[in-house]
Amino acid sequence: MAMTKKVAVITGSHKGLGYAIARQLAQKEDIQVVITSRNPQDSIAAQKRLSDEGHQVDAHPLDVTSDDSVKEFATWLQQTYGRVDILVNNAGVNPTMQQDEASLLTVDIETMLTTFNTNVLAVVRITKALIPLMRANNYGRIVNVSTEMASLNSMSSDYYPLAPSYRLSKVGLNGLTAIFAKELQGSNILINAYSPGWMKTDMGGSDAPFTADEGAETAAYLATLPEGGAQGGFFAEMRKFGGAIALPW
Question: Which of 13, 94, 161, 177 is most buried (most C-beta within 10 Å)?
Fold first, then answer.
């Protein structure tokens, strides 16, 4: 079917931050949102919740750690919409609260590998698969959900948990953001990373100072950058600093 709206894909968007990002983008009249989740029932349930709020979104299963799932999803996008304009790489894992994550001396290597596979390699996989659809229309906005905990500049002095698996995976995510930005230089495909902050989600817990809606604001901003906007940046959450403030790598 012909689609004149921009098509936005948000990975892991059946709940939490991903759901909040999907809702904020769905509120824009010129964007068609596609909800994705590893579990088909979860994505359909999220689609229904947004539909009940008056937002007409689509839903499709997607396991970003699976080559077959990503290939099938890219084919479905091509056949259904013939395009994709926005990709928010939100799906991820965070084993920070596991006891082994208190130190590099105790961290479990298998946990590190699983975390890196989901938070870094899966982002490479889905981004590689969807960039050709962006190139076809000479337009793309890619947003990678990172964390302030991945800033090498402040890692030795910040007050966050050591969390080696999570931190190192997000350092890798920031690195691939910079590399993709270099490869995409001169195109109208902009890629940036950002930290949503500590939020009241399943991952963040109830003591967090920000809501998922607040954490989603910077993602929505970066997903709709104008031509000539930021490329290869690392941004803080807007609510915390009153704007899209660049973080030090």
Answer: 13
Q: Taking Cα atoms as reference points, which of 118, 117, 143, 119 lies closest to residue 130? A: 143
Query: For all residues of the chain together, what is the average pLDDT?
Result: 92
Four-CA torsion 212, 152, 122, 211, nearest 10 degrees: 0
List of residues 6+ apart from 124 with CB closer than 8 A = 176
Strand order of the β-sheet with 6-10 is 58-61, 31-37, 6-10, 86-89, 140-145, 189-194, 234-235
| CA atoms of 96 and 165, how far apart (whole Å) | 7
The residues pairing with 199 across neighbouring beta strands, listed in sequence order, are 210
- Spatial distance between the Cα atoms of 73 and 60, rounded to a whole number of angstroms: 8
What span, in angstroms and rounded, lies between the C-alpha atoms of 60 and 39? 9
Instruction: Give the residue numbers annotated as catalytic, written as ranges.
Output: 166
**Helices 109-116, 164-183: crossing angle, 10 deg rounding:** 30
Strands 31-37 and 58-61: parallel
* CA gap 63, 65 in Å, rounded: 5
Pick from 2, 5, 1: nearest CA to 139: 5
In the predicted structure, residue 1 carries a pLDDT above the cut 60: no
- Per residue in 138-176, pLDDT tens? 999 999 999 999 999 999 999 899 999 999 999 999 999
Whether the CB-CB separation of 11 and 126 falls below 8 Å is answered with: yes
For 204, the token pair is: 């963040």
Nearest to 126 by CA among 186, 59, 167, 173: 173
Tokens 């990678």 correspond to what residue? 144
Q: Tell me the HSE value of 183 on the side-chain side, using a 13 A CA sphere.
A: 11
